[in-house]
Fold these 2 entries.
Entry 1:
Amino acid sequence: MVTVLGQEFFLSEILGRRFYLKTQQVGRLEDFVIFETGKLPEVTHLVVSRSYGYPSLLLPWDKITLISNTEIVADVDHIADYEKPVPESAILLKAHILDKKILDMDDHEVEVVYDVKLALQYGKLYASEVDFSRIRLLRRLGLKKIANFLAEHHAESATVSWMYVQPLPEKIGMFKGHVKLNLLKENIHDIHPVDLADILEELEGDQRLAVFNELDSELASDTLEEVEPRVQRELISAIKRERAAQLINEMSPAQAADILAILPGAEADELLKLIDKESVSKVQQIVEQHNENILLYATQDFIKQPPIMLAKDIIENYRQLARGKEVIMYVYVVNESDTLLGVVDIRELIMAENDQTLAEIMSDNVISLNPDETLRDAVEMFERYDFRAIPVTDEDDHMLGVVSFRNIRGIHPRLE
Amino acid sequence: MKLGRAYKLAAFAASHKAKAKIMLGNGDHEGAKKEEIAYLQRVDEIPTAHRQQVSPFLDASVQVKLLALQQNH
């Protein structure tokens, strides 16, 4: 029977502790092997590192007799019996969980595990909770005073029961029997594609692919539409061509074009050959449209005024100025040679003082499109800045037109 | 949009100049002096390359602002 001083302790507090076989010090505690029980994982073995040249020890939990604040003692006679490597299929708390990303199934968020709480129950040791708080990280770094101060003043708990977390293996075959992975498979379909997209964006390459491969075609397709282009590119390149084509087939032609537009030309062409014949021409047409010059979508029906105009005069005549115009939410401020000087939002106009001129209230840091840019460039800009219209100007800032969000949103699914 | 910035600074300068004129007319010499200093500071901030180009705008703005301020009071 093991004697433990304290029913609960953190992994970081016990790692590195001196390890004795009866009275002889043999090394230091390196890690814990855990076994999935379906509820809380149980510690089955302790891994002990020894001096250089000696193999590490793998000691069963039932051989441990004491865990004190300074040492751990095991009751074994023949050390050679325990000189064996950790099996590849074993789950190790320090090596596989600590500092690794974990999917919090409750909040659908990816967190980093800064510590693991271990609890003793009926003579057995369990990994009971994971701790995401930076306070634990500070403690591990030896910054106890700062950690204590933060713990007192920001007493927010960041521990989550092991039952609600899902370790994300770097290699899909890492865990014995894929116990955790099966759990993931059961729960993942409850997560909305938008949340799944956020999760995938936070993960790294192998982990991202492991989670993505667990999704059925419909969910994978919906999620693929939601992730950012960088991740879309990575996922499409990582999965098999046939699977990628299958996911694209699940999408509308506009959404499919959206995905194909961000891929390198050769890769997009290869996928086009694999997708359903009846949608190929529609998709191709939309992809080609993405490369059209933005001036084709620019309008001349916008409001432009000289900088000397008083805001109150514009407001008084707004109805007349806006009549027949396509873009009416912004007033573009131009000089006598039609050089764009700034933009005034209708809200700023309403809020302006009676004696303020447009030049005083305009935003002079204007984001604009170049005349050689494409519809795709415009879409990216609308997504980035959330404007309702973007002016097109030449290299000398002369106004060439305005592209309105309303005019292109039907063409591009991302803007719908 | 560097020219836009120059216009904006000129508009701010014009506002100070117009206020200085009104204060002077009201006998507030101290206030007028402060506005004149602010005006000069704003003009100084206008990039040299654009100063000449925005000069007519600055002069015209002073007149527009003067009129607007007088109407407000």
Entry 2:
Amino acid sequence: MRYDVVVVGSGPAGSVTARFAAESGAKVLVIERRREIGVPVLCGEGISRKIDSWGMLDGDKWIARKMDGARIYAPNGTMVKLSAEQAGNETGYVIYRDVFDKELARKAMVAGAEYMMNTKAVGLIKDDNGGIKGVKALHFDEEIEIKADIVVGADGVESRVGKWAGINTTLRPKDLESCAQYTLANVDCQDAYVDFFLGKEKAPGGYIWVFPKDNDTANVGIGVLANLSKPGMAKELLDKFIASDDRLKNGQPLRFLAGAVPVARPIETVRDNIMLVGDAARQVDPITGGGLTHSLEVGKIAGEVIGKAVEEQNFCREFLMEYERRWKKAIGKKMERNYMVKEIMLSFDDKTLNMLADSLKDYKFDEFSTKGLIKALVTKHPTLLARLVPLLRA
Amino acid sequence: MERHKVEVSQEKCLMCGGCVSVCPKDAIEMGEGHAFVIKERCIGCGICIKVCPVGAIHEVVP
């Protein structure tokens, strides 16, 4: 088998990369170790409405519910509300992530990308000089070799592709959120608000989320910073929260999953014949743990650069670096800023979080984003948060 | 004394990949339906045990 590009992993980053590479004329194969695209759903299923203008998805089958805003609850229950009216109506959707992933894959397929399921990458094909020439994989139980000029690692938080190419992607526990998540039915979620609950007792170094998919179904999950975690802690704390919450306590699980989310600083993502995208490239917002919009943004850039590389038949690091420069310009600065904010937030005890929430409870936000929230905090607490001021430029 | 190695419970593991991403020795890989430890590479540091959201990883006494 011979392709211009082989993409390892069919999540959003992989499929969007595949789509834009194929649209630029590249011959693309996507391999997926699982048997179905988009399953299991390892995700809170929230996404910003800024994707509306990107034109990457057709129709609305993938939207479960349009949100009116977000509510953040401090440890003592003080609530900070960011609503649509304040934020230029740009809030977000709760989505069906399995449908969402399939839709992105379908768009890639229409653009000409080929897909292979049940195909697990097990290593890289290298020539005598160590040059990367493709991927070795197991298709069901058959060993196959897929020759390609570019290998894209879109293989998620547990990425191997980067490591095979010599890129150190090992995460420190302080840069990983350990997650557990239910989709619960028979809950009572009338308000179209995504809710976040903070506190060292509730979710050390992370948060609990309640994202309503409709009035009686919600995606409810937890992220715990792995260096503050204990074995099984994410599930235990999530179960405890659900049992104590009036809206959720009668809920029954439609599914239960564990997850892992990188909350790290930007890393190296390009070597000769290799690119990393999505969670494999750690392209996740270190505060929210959100990676979907990033994956769409970087996938498009990656696909476009691959198109140029194939046209020029130039696959060296220097040429592919256009991808890294462009994605770092698009989201890298924001990631650096939010990583520092994450570190500062971690130093706050519950009392400080309560105080901050209390000072923001009537604040009128002009931007529905972490940046809007940081701006508000700096406005209210110039001395406490002086370290944050320079970060707002990014 | 030799450090204890670790083992992944096939029944408990939900394949989130967290342990794989933090292992400093690349000693954990995703298998069919669960992660598994490559014993020759494991140094018994125990980072993966702590990270696991469902408590599926434990020490084994050699």
